[in-house]
Amino acid sequence: MSNPWTIDSPRTKISEPAYAWERHGDLPGRHVNVNEGPEFLSHGGKMFVVFSASGCWTDFYALGALEARIDADPLKASSWRKIDHPLMKSDPAAKAFGPGHNGFFQSPDGKEEWIIYHANPAPGEGCGNLRSPRMQRFTWDRSGEPDFGKPAPIGQPMPKPGR
């Protein structure tokens, strides 16, 4: 970018729906594939772009991710590898349907990592005003990928981020 509001290079597509879990998006008379809402995350020599996949109007809306080495060129599509499974998806037992559009933050003491996202409390509620913000602590798996776990149930007490 030549400044914070002007792009001065060609666009680079680094993701498009490739897996079945990313391709739920039927609407009357058409189908829409979705990878949207990218958020950057880095850890242990890797960088990630976490995104929402499938249509928000479906209960299949889920979080996926691309991963690359931290020293890779992020503008080269070949730098990125798409993780082949959703990192967070609907969980009826937790009353969490269509989790998506996330962000990340650290606890005030810098020792915990947290995800904030939205989800619906019941199936079939789509992209409307019934979605609620939710947050929970997350960790990293042995391969260095983020492990968001299952969505926390509504009303489940949880500790405050570390101080």
Q: Which features would summarize this protein structure in a list?
A:
Tachylectin-2, Chain A, single chain, mainly beta, four-stranded antiparallel β-sheet, 163 residues
Secondary structure layout plus pairing:
Blueprint: E1 26-27, E2 30-31, E3 35-43, E4 46-53, E5 62-69, E6 81-82, E7 97-106, E8 113-120, E9 132-140, E10 146-147
Antiparallel strand pairs: 1-2, 3-4, 4-5, 5-6, 7-8, 8-9, 9-10
Q: Total number of β-strand segments?
A: 10
The end-to-end span amounts to 37 Å
The level of helicity is under 10%
Quaternary structure of the protein: single chain
CATH architecture: 5 Propeller
**Regions with little confidence, pLDDT below 50 for 5+ residues:** none
General form: globular
CATH class: Mainly Beta
Question: H/E series, N to C?
Answer: EEEEEEEEEE
If you average the pLDDT, what whole number results? 95
> What is the count of helical runs?
0
Describe the structure.
With 163 residues, the protein is mostly beta strands. It has one domain: 5 Propeller (Tachylectin-2, Chain A), CATH 2.115.10.20. The chain has strands at residues 26-27, 30-31, 35-43, 46-53, 62-69, 81-82, 97-106, 113-120, 132-140, 146-147. The chain has a four-stranded antiparallel β-sheet, with no helix packed on it. Strands 7-8-9-10 form a four-stranded antiparallel β-sheet, with no helix packed on it. It has a two-stranded antiparallel sheet with strand order 1-2. The protein is globular and about 45 Å long. The mean pLDDT is 95.
